[in-house]
Write a structure and sequence with these properties.
The chain is an all-alpha fold. The protein has helices at about 5-20, 25, 30-45, 55-65, 80-95, 105-110, 130-140, 150-160, 180-190, 200-205, 225-240, 245-255, 275-285, 305-310. The protein has a single domain, classed as Glycosyltransferase (Alpha/alpha barrel). The chain is about 50% helix and about 0% strand. The structure holds ligand 3PZ and zinc ion (ZN). Zinc ion (ZN) binds near residues 225, 227 and 277.
């Protein structure tokens, strides 16, 4: 039986946070705000958010904000995008520091990226993708400013990306993919629109993602990968069909991807670890109610206690 080594993962996440100039860090330079969200959420799920200095994180996050438009970039000196603006808002929510934000300014930036057909562009360059619909809706919901967009049009656009297999793509007619399905189901869950989903049809497609080795893949014929534990499981939970997969086999697959010596989790057994798969591995275990982990909200991708604090201030 594989054992879970949370203390090692805490050490690993903190060490990645400190290293700033090796190869892995350089590749990740332009998306450090995403990386910070993955690392900090992992620590919080393991009850170790106290290991970091919140004031230092908050002031660094705020240096990534662009004063002209209100959006955030992945690091200082890069271009703002919805992908990083969501991570910034999630980090501040996690640290209970939304108060440092000019909420009107950030929410106007996000709302300004909605198009006439209800879709969202990721930034001023205009690429459209249902991932950006999720980023915008999740962000505005956390900021309690969903009324700034046309929610009905946003929902209708997402529904127009639904396929005959029950899944969703990046745009109308785009191939179903588990990451994209998470974004669409998450956005529909947040806006209370899950009635647009055929739960049995989508649940079937999602539970077909479980491979012989117990892991989950992102679409047919692909290898299992730890990050799909999150995209697939969270979607199954939101549509109430998570009992259709074998949780024990999936937990074993994730535990098998741990580096038990130096900490961290990889995409599949024996590969090199990274913060992304460490986060999604721990988040997947949390969704399966693994002992001693905080539970994570499948739609907001934040610990449940953080989400409750946002909406009920308790
Ligand atoms: C990884 N990105 O484009 S990336 C990401 N992938 O920035 C971060 N599973 O070098 C890390 N694959 C590792 N640390 C991988 C984020 C990708 C996803 C690649 C991946 C994951 C299988 C091939 C896209 C949210 C945000 C971004 C993504 C998905 C979800 C890479 C490759 C790509 C990227 C970064 C590093 C292998 C870490
Ligand atoms: Zn992966």
């Amino acid at each position: 039986m594989e054992e879970f080594v949370p203390e090692k993962h805490v050490q690993y996440v903190i060490s990645v946070e400190k290293r700033k100039d090796d190869f892995e860090s350089l590749v990740m330079e332009h998306l450090r705000l995403n990386g910070a969200y993955w690392g900090l959420t992992t620590l919080d799920l393991m009850h170790k958010i106290g290991a970091i200095d919140p004031d230092a994180v908050v002031s660094w996050v705020m240096t990534c904000q662009h004063q002209d438009c209100g959006g955030f970039s992945g690091n200082i000196g890069h271009d703002p995008h919805l992908l990083y603006t969501l991570s910034a808002v999630q980090i501040l929510a996690l640290l209970d520091r939304i108060d440092v934000l000019d909420v009107e300014k950030v929410s106007n930036y996000v709302a300004g990226l909605q198009n006439e057909d209800g879709s969202f562009s990721g930034d001023i360059w205009g690429e459209i993708d249902t991932r950006f619909s999720y980023c915008a809706i999740c962000c505005l919901s956390i900021l309690r400013r969903l009324e700034k967009i046309d929610v009905e049009k946003a929902v209708n656009y997402i529904v127009s990306c639904k396929n005959y297999d029950g899944g969703f793509g990046a745009m109308p007619g785009g191939e179903s993919h588990a990451g994209q399905i998470f974004c669409c189901v998450g956005a529909l869950a947040i806006t209370g629109s899950l009635d647009h989903i055929d739960r049995d049809l989508l649940g079937w497609w999602l539970c077909e993602r479980q491979c012989k080795d117990g892991g989950l893949n992102g679409r047919p014929e692909k290898l299992a990968d730890v990050c799909y534990s999150w995209w697939v499981l969270s979607s199954l939970i939101m549509i109430d069909r998570v009992h259709w997969i074998d949780k024990d086999k999936l937990a074993k697959f994730i535990l098998n991807c741990q580096d038990k010596e130096n900490g961290g989790i990889s995409d599949r057994p024996d590969n090199a670890v990274d913060v992304f798969h460490t986060y999604f591995g721990v988040a997947g275990l949390s969704l399966m109610e693994y002992p001693d982990l905080k539970s994570i909200d499948p739609a907001y991708a934040l610990p449940v206690d953080v989400v409750n604090r946002i909406f009920f201030r308790k």
